[in-house]
Design goal:
Elements lengths: L15 E3 L11 E6 L14 E7 L4 E8 L10 E5 L7 H9 L2 E3 L12 E3 L9 E5 L9 E2 L9 H18 L8 E5 L3 H18 L6 E3 L4 H7 L2 H7 L26 H9 L4 E6 L7 H9 L5 E10 L2 E9 L3 E6 L6 H4 L1 H12 L5
Parallel strand pairs: 5-8, 5-10, 12-15
Antiparallel strand pairs: 1-11, 2-3, 3-4, 4-8, 4-9, 6-7, 13-14, 14-15
Length: about 350
C-alpha cells in the first residue's frame, strides 16, 4: 500500500504550554470585537456567548473570527483554536456543520427567505471555549487591504495565525490561565504542527507572552450569511467580501510543506499531547492512509487497537502510542467527522481533554 501524504491527519489537538509574547518592532496589530446576543434566523437570544471580530495584522491582512464561550465553565474549560481545511474553507463551515452550537434547519427550509437556525446540544462548546478563524486572507470574511499583492503560503499563514493568537489573547487576558489547544481538520493538519512548534520555540527563547498551550454540504450557509442583516449582526466590514463562499478552492495559495512527520516527531519529543482522528467512511482521506503515516512516526504502542464506546455502543476504534499520542476512528463518519457523528465526537473530545482514555 502506498504511503499517504501527511495531510491525511484529520485532527491534531496540541496541548498546554506557557506562551509569552514578543514586543513587535513594527506597527502593533490591533483587534476589533463585537458581542452578538442575537442572530437573524434564530428564535430569541442566543443560549451561548458569541463574539465576532477582526484581528488587523500589520501586513494589511484582516482575519475574521467567531468566538464562542464554553457553555459549561468558560473560566476553567480549555480554549480551542479551530482551523478549517481547504485551504480556503470558511470557519463558519466548522462552526455550523461540525463542532459549533447551532445548525441550519434544512428539512424545514421552504426554498425562499432566510434559513432557520436551531440549537445543537452536541457541540464542542459544551466542554470548551472555541475560536473559529477564517484563514488565510480571502477565506470567508477575512481579507487583504493591499489587494492580495502577496499570495498566502503555509509559512505566511503560520506567522499570521501566531500573531493572531498573540493579539487575541491581549484582548482576552482572562483566558490566559485556561489550557489552550490547536485543533482542525483536513489541510489544517499541515498547518497545526509548525504553528505549535513556533509557539513552543517562543517559550524556549523567552520572547512570548503567556498563553496556556497545554503540555501533555452547504447551500443554506450561503443564503444565510450573505443576508445583509446577518452581516450586520456579525459585524462584517462593509464592501470587503461581496459574496461569501463556504470554500473557495480557487484562492491563490502556495503549499510549501510536503511532509509533516518531522514536525509531529519534534512536538512529541517535547512531550506535547496530541490526538488524531479519522471518520472511517472518509473517501477523500481514508483512515488507512492516516494509519500509514502514523506508522512512519515509529512510536511504541502502549494500548493496542480496541473499540471505544458511547452509551454502550461501539462508535470506533482507538490506539495509544508512547509520548501521549492517541489515534481514533469514528464509526460511520465521513471527512468532517463531527458533522456526521456529533454526539460521538463530543464524547471523544470531552474524554481526551479531561485526560481520560477513550
Amino acid at each position: 500500500m502506498a504511503t499517504a501524504p501527511p495531510r491525511r491527519s484529520l485532527l491534531l489537538l496540541l496541548p498546554q504550554l506557557l506562551l509569552l509574547r514578543s514586543l513587535l518592532a513594527a506597527a502593533t496589530p490591533s483587534i476589533t470585537t463585537k458581542a452578538v446576543p442575537r442572530l437573524p434566523g434564530f428564535s430569541g437570544p442566543l443560549p451561548f456567548s458569541l463574539e465576532t471580530g477582526y484581528v488587523e495584522l500589520d501586513d494589511g491582512v484582516r482575519l475574521f473570527y467567531y468566538f464562542i464561550q464554553s457553555e459549561r465553565d468558560p473560566e476553567e474549560d480549555p480554549v480551542l483554536l479551530w482551523l478549517t481545511g481547504g485551504p480556503g474553507c470558511s470557519a463558519l463551515s466548522g462552526l455550523v456543520y461540525e463542532i459549533g452550537p447551532f445548525y441550519f434547519d434544512f428539512e424545514g427550509y421552504t426554498g425562499s427567505g432566510l434559513p432557520t437556525l436551531l440549537y445543537k446540544p452536541a457541540s464542542w462548546t459544551q466542554v470548551s471555549n472555541v475560536i473559529f478563524v477564517d484563514s488565510p486572507a480571502g477565506t470567508g470574511f477575512s481579507y487583504d487591504t493591499t489587494g492580495n499583492r502577496t499570495i498566502p503560503s503555509d509559512t505566511i499563514v503560520i506567522q499570521q495565525l501566531h500573531t493572531f493568537l498573540q493579539t487575541w489573547f491581549d484582548e482576552h487576558p482572562q483566558f490566559l490561565p485556561n489550557p489552550f489547544y490547536v485543533a482542525g481538520d483536513s489541510y489544517s493538519g499541515i498547518i497545526i504542527p509548525p504553528l505549535a512548534m513556533k509557539i513552543a520555540k517562543g517559550i524556549e527563547y523567552g520572547d512570548e507572552r503567556l498563553i496556556n498551550l497545554k503540555n501533555s454540504t452547504y447551500f443554506l450557509s450561503e443564503v444565510w450569511i450573505n443576508d445583509e442583516p446577518v452581516r450586520e449582526s456579525l459585524g462584517i466590514h462593509k464592501g470587503t467580501v461581496p459574496s461569501w463562499l463556504r470554500c473557495d478552492f480557487d484562492i491563490p495559495y502556495t503549499k510549501e510543506i510536503t511532509d509533516a512527520v518531522d514536525g509531529h516527531l519534534a512536538l512529541i519529543a517535547k512531550g506535547y499531547r496530541a490526538m488524531i482522528y479519522s471518520g472511517d467512511h472518509d473517501a477523500s482521506i481514508p483512515y488507512v492512509g492516516t494509519q500509514a503515516w502514523i506508522r512512519k512516526l515509529n512510536l511504541p504502542i502502549t494500548d493496542n487497537w480496541r473499540p471505544w464506546y458511547v452509551d454502550g455502543q461501539v462508535v470506533g476504534f482507538t490506539r495509544t502510542y508512547s509520548n501521549n499520542l492517541t489515534y481514533a476512528t469514528v464509526k460511520g463518519a465521513g471527512h468532517t467527522a463531527p458533522e456526521y457523528m456529533p454526539k460521538e465526537c463530543l464524547a471523544m473530545i470531552d474524554r481526551w481533554l479531561s485526560g481520560e482514555p477513550l
